[in-house]
Every structure is written in C-alpha cells, then in structure tokens.
Design goal:
By secondary structure, this protein is α/β, with parallel strands linked by helices. Helix content is 45%, strand content 14%. It has one domain: Collagenase (Catalytic Domain) (3-Layer(aba) Sandwich), CATH 3.40.390.30.
C-alpha cells in the first residue's frame, strides 16, 4: 500500500516585520505572480519587508558588509541546501527604510520603488545578475518592463 500526501504550498508569501511601515500585500502578490507567469516559473517565493537594523544584520552575516542595503535575495537552489530539495524559488528581503530614502532620491513614489526592489530581487532569484555591463543592461530592461506592466520584456 502506497500512501501519498499532497501539500499545497502558497505560491507567494509576504511577511512585513518592519515595526512601523506597512505595505499593501495584494499589489505585491499580483506583481510577483505576473513576473513569475511571464518567466514561466511556478515555484513559491517569500518576500520579507524589514527595517534597516534587520537588513544590516543579515547583510553582515551573509555578505560581510557592515551596512544596510535595499534588497537581498537568497535562492533555495543556490549553495548548500543540506541535501533537501525545497520546492521554493527563495526569499527576497526588502528594507522599507532604504526604499523610502531611494524613492525620495529618485523622485518616485514609495510604492514604485518598493515594487522595483521586489522585481530586482525576483530577477536575482531567476538567475539574472548585474556583474557585467551587458547583464546590468538586460536586468534593468526587464525591471523597467515589469514595472510598467509590459507583457514581454526583452532579454
């Protein structure tokens, strides 16, 4: 006799652990769903909205940098997974404090900057990077296309 258990994983999970700032989850869920659909990916992803203090701690722990940053992505398919094939694309951490400063600096809305950072983190989980000028250009084009709602970004 074979026993099979099916577990339905939530495709997108959003956690807001920032002590003061709140994000509208529905808009972020729709954005991520659209990007994943257009990229042909059906794995779950977690997005965690944090403050600068939290971001500083994980940035120091994982990148050895002693300052905050805007977004960090941790892919479940990268590095050591301790032999476990976890059915997830990974985690995206976004500093809402940094997003607010960058929105003011770029003269855009907080919502737009937060969306851009989520897309940026998601593109990293999908294997995109910006180490070379060509990669950076491709990634920026995809970011902009997804932010504007384009159905078929170049690259």
């Amino acid at each position: 006799m074979t026993c099979s258990i099916k577990i339905k994983l939530k495709k997108i999970t959003i956690h807001n652990i920032h002590p003061l700032c709140r994000i509208k989850k529905k808009g972020i869920e729709k954005l991520i769903s659209r990007v994943l659909r257009l990229e042909g990916i059906s794995l779950p992803v977690d997005v965690i909205f944090v403050d600068d203090d939290f971001m500083k701690k994980i940035n120091r722990k994982f990148t050895k940098r002693r300052k905050t940053t805007d977004v960090l992505s941790f892919g479940m398919k990268e590095g050591k997974n301790m032999g476990v094939d976890y059915p997830s694309l990974g985690d995206i951490y976004v500093s809402l404090d940094q997003a607010k400063r960058q929105a003011q600096e770029y003269r855009i809305s907080f919502k737009e900057e937060t969306s851009r950072l989520v897309i940026h983190g998601l593109l990293h989980l999908l294997g995109h990077d910006h180490k070379s000028k060509k990669e950076a250009k491709t990634m920026k084009e995809k970011e902009e296309a997804y932010l504007k709602g384009s159905a078929s970004p170049k690259g």
